[in-house]
């Protein structure tokens, strides 16, 4: 790989504006058979999403992926979401009991709209086998498989039947994979996304490393259909993480899915915990994201997200913020 870069090394180049107001720009995206208000999905982590938030997101036209860390609740969750007329979007792992769970869904004729196979090293026979298992038992479910970081992996998972692949190994805010293993796309996630997107024939979800709303537009420019975000969604009023006061400031916890806090033990730990300053309401952040993305579309010279895919860019290695703080 040559010419690697990350989000803060890139600036997109404006094209002539074709709208009179940013409100004329449309941020909707289609994934599978459903359309969503934003090309953004909160990470399927226990301090980022819970049942209440899933209902809020689905009710308001946003995509969501429920986490897999309370497996016993998933059947009731799917039934509840579908009885409300909402999409059901869940996660699975690859252990033996997950095969039985998929079979149970098929027997009960419970068909989630989306299933995300949520594994650290998704380029593996275990994930390929799980894709095939889901597709043979519940073929109409849209399968998102990951996480991967190479074109070979994207092709193999697509060939096994995945409807979308999730790209990002190690760029997450609470990730320590890059430190503990020396592997991953941390530090060059945007370049890895471009590399993978060139090989993909189906949608890609860019996962991890988003630090500003502008990074969403950059992900789209480099081939993402959707962007999965943890840290930017952490710390809200509605976020499931525990709230506490630290040095007089209200904070909420955000921990990795492979951290000891999630696992309950110190085995194969590849995630950490941090405290995020309280950010107010998630609804306000979603609105701000939409407005910022509408603005991105206007700078791209179009009216829809697709306009961003074709803009020129420059690499300004590590210098965009010129030593300034982002906020
Ligand atoms: N996006 C990212 O960069 C990363 C994300 N995560 C998140 O952490 C959570 C836990 O992930 P994960 O550990 O995969 O899930 P699980 O703990 O459910 O492990 C799934 C299975 O895969 C095996 N496994 C895990 N890692 C590897 C590996 N590197 N090589 C071979 N087998 C492996 C496990 O066995 P065993 O434990 O015995 O090896 C287990 O049998 C997920 O939510 C995941 O998304 C974790 C790390 C990186
Ligand atoms: N290496 C690890 N990665 C993790 C862990 N838990 C979650 N994740 C990944 O991070 C993103 C969110 O990234 P952010 O930069 O937006 O905060 C999430 O979707 C997972 O892919 C972990 O314990 N270790």
From TrEMBL:
Enzyme Commission code: 1.7.1.7
- Where the record annotates domain IMP dehydrogenase/GMP reductase, the positions are 6-310
User: GO: which molecular function terms?
Assistant: GMP reductase activity
Matching SUPFAM superfamilies, A to Z?
A: Inosine monophosphate dehydrogenase (IMPDH)
Look up keyword Heme and say if it applies.
Answer: no
Q: Does the keyword Oxidoreductase apply?
A: yes
Naming one, the record's GO cellular component terms include: cytosol
This enzyme catalyses: IMP + NH4(+) + NADP(+) = GMP + NADPH + 2 H(+)
Query: Can you supply a Gene Ontology BP term from the record?
Result: purine nucleotide metabolic process
One of its Pfam families is: IMPDH
Job description of the protein: Catalyzes the irreversible NADPH-dependent deamination of GMP to IMP. It functions in the conversion of nucleobase, nucleoside and nucleotide derivatives of G to A nucleotides, and in maintaining the intracellular balance of A and G nucleotides.
HAMAP family linked: GMP_reduct_type2 (MF_01511)
Q: What is this protein called?
A: GMP reductase
- Species source reads Pontibacillus litoralis JSM 072002
């Amino acid at each position: 790989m040559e010419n690697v870069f990350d989000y803060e090394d890139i600036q997109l180049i404006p094209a002539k504006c074709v709208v009179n107001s940013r409100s004329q720009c449309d941020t909707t995206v289609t994934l599978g058979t459903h359309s969503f208000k934003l090309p953004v999905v909160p990470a399927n982590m226990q301090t980022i999403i819970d049942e209440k938030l899933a209902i809020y997101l689905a009710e308001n036209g946003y995509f969501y992926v429920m986490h897999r860390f309370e497996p016993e609740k998933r059947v009731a969750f799917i039934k509840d979401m579908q009885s409300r007329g909402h999409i059901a979007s869940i996660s699975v792992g690859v252990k033996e009991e997950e095969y039985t769970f998929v079979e149970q869904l098929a027997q009960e004729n419970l068909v989630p709209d989306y299933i995300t196979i949520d594994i650290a090293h998704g380029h593996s026979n275990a994930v390929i086998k799980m894709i095939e298992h889901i597709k043979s038992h519940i073929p109409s479910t849209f399968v998102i498989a990951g996480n991967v970081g190479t074109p070979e992996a994207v092709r193999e998972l697509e060939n096994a039947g995945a409807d979308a692949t999730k790209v990002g190994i190690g760029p997450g805010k609470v990730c320590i994979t890059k430190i503990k293993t020396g592997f991953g796309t941390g530090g060059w996630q945007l370049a890895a996304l471009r590399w993978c997107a060139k090989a993909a024939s189906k949608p890609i979800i860019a996962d991890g490393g988003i630090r500003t709303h502008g990074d969403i537009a950059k992900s789209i420019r480099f081939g993402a259909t959707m962007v999965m975000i943890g840290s930017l969604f952490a710390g809200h009023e509605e976020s499931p993480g525990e709230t506490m006061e630290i040095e007089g400031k209200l904070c909420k916890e955000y921990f990795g899915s492979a951290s000891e806090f999630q696992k309950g033990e110190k085995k194969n730990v590849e995630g950490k915990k941090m405290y995020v300053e309280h950010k107010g309401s998630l609804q306000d952040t979603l609105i701000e994201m939409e407005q910022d993305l509408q603005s991105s579309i206007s700078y791209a010279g179009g009216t829809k997200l697709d306009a961003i895919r074709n803009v020129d860019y420059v690499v300004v290695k590590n210098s965009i913020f010129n030593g300034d703080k982002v906020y």
